[in-house]
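Incident review: delayed structure delivery

Summary: a single-chain prediction request sat in the queue longer than the usual turnaround. Root cause was a stuck worker, restarted by the on-call engineer. No data loss occurred. The affected request and its eventual output are reproduced below so the record is complete for anyone auditing the incident later.

Affected input:
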Amino acid sequence: MSFPKGFLDELKGRIRVSEVVGRKVKLTRRGREFVGLSPFTNEKTPSFTVNDDKQFYHCFSSGEHGDVIKFLEKTENLSFIEAVERLAAEAGMEMPERDAHAAQRDKEAATLIDVMEMAAQFFRQKLQEGVGAEARAYLERRGMRGKTIDDFGIGYAPGDDRGDRTSLLKYLKSKNVTLDQMVEAGLVISGADIAEPYDRFRNRVMFPIADARGRVIAFGGRALSADAKAKYLNSPETPLFHKGRVLYNLARARKPAHDEGTVIAVEGYMDVVGLAQGGIYNAVAPLGTALTEDQIQLLWRMAPEPILCFDGDKAGLRAAYRAVERVLPLLKPGHSLRFALLPEGKDPDDLVREEGGDAMREVLAKARPLSEMLWEKETSTGQWDTPERRAKLEADLEAAVAAIGDPKVRAHYAEALRERVSKFFGGGRQAASQGGYGRGRFQQRGFRTDRFGGGRSFKGRGGFPRGDSYMPPVTPELRRSALASGATGEQGREGLLLLTLLNHPELLENYAEDISRIALRTPALDRLRNEIIDIAALHAPLEREALKGHLLSRDLAEIARRLEAGSAFRSDPFAWPDASPEEAEAGFLHTLARHRRAIMLEAELKAAERALAEEMTEENYARFRAIQEQLERSDVADGLG
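Output delivered after worker restart:
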């Protein structure tokens, strides 16, 4: 959502940063600023500052910096829009409308929110009346305390198929809610083939499902009758509720998740409620389905490494393995999952009720990392005592690694699993240099020094050196290239790197990991890079025609064709097939070095811009201009000179 010009400035002008921060941090005035202990690190000496005049906070111990909106995002696990909404309410400002259609949709949604809240009140009321006696007895048998019932808004939906099926319908009608609204909210079932509309939920313990702002948008009902067709029944998809995008207890769990540094995903409502009774408040649950991509992203907004909790039986392991498969393509640096497996035959609610919250905390403390669960998933399905079976295991692991979308994470998984394979098959085997995990991006550095027909490599070992100052010997051809003249911009550098690999795929034998780690900001080229690395991991040595044939089968040949057909790289002879291996490597490494340095300088420039905006000093300005000038110059030309 975009805001009208001046809206955010006015909002921040009405809200003092120190007032919002002061609710979480004990601040002491020091001159024109406030200081306190960092809410982001466990420090003993105050390094956290707040400046109301400049409208920002800065944490020297963690590097966190931002305005009052960002502070709420970081400390309350709120989205940008949610943080703005909260501050606008405090400041007495109306949120701006987006467009006529959006405003109408919001109005309709608000009406449905009102209807859902009426239904929630009705269910809570019925639980306390005589008709709710059976439901209260059920909750008492489950060890549910009155405060827990109130905190979670648990209620009871009366009625059954033999008696009155319209209790809620009649109640809502008395509140001037139309039948269409009841149906749209998923509370009443109606249709051309139904003689009389009736309540969707009957004779069930009701759990309200809230959105991220704590508003009731759906319900989950637990049947009290053993004859019920479904033990648990959720609201259908509605304009308010999309079950794959919601987590039960999300709004209530966000602050405890931030305080604890993690969030726990369990299987059902009763598990969440049971954990709360054991003093564990940072738990959420999907709504009757396996975790979706949207739900994983919600979990990552709450904590970088959520814990998924599963029963320790075969069904629980199958669910854990499905979660492993689902999350691999989504992995990104710093974000993963951990897995806690319960004793067989126990769920979280059982464990807390029978042994207390500490027993559950012990299980959570032993949560296993995703990489370990992936290894167990692939190795627990068979015997690996023959060459053919071992080859299959390696192929399965390579396929799993290939599913990881982020190149940096993929490279680290490849290295970790290669080491596991080596130990699993006896430690000292030679297979690591003969195929499978010993090839392409899985290869150890220093494996070969004569990869170009007996010629020595420039460094005498594989892998790009980590020092940014390194440059290979300069050939006359490289000195005449567009790269040397500084005419190659960011997209040009990215294209030049991939064109060189397309025509000299033997470079991947030593530099696959390096090319997988760099940032490529052109989506099409990033996709091409990932596919080239994946095929190189499976086939080595990789020949030029074989690579192009594979790209054709993956609908990537057109991207490669455009690189070769363009005129931008005609003056870079090292990128073309007739270049010698030494020339190709020299040009490739110079391009790689310049690209890495440019990205580093861009990051430094952004940091210098922020520092200059915060404090206009000669020192900050000089640093900003110095970095800016380095970017404007041809850094590779400097290196080739």
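Verification: Confidence is low (pLDDT under 50) at residues 428-470, 634-641.
Action items: add queue-age alerting; document worker restart procedure.
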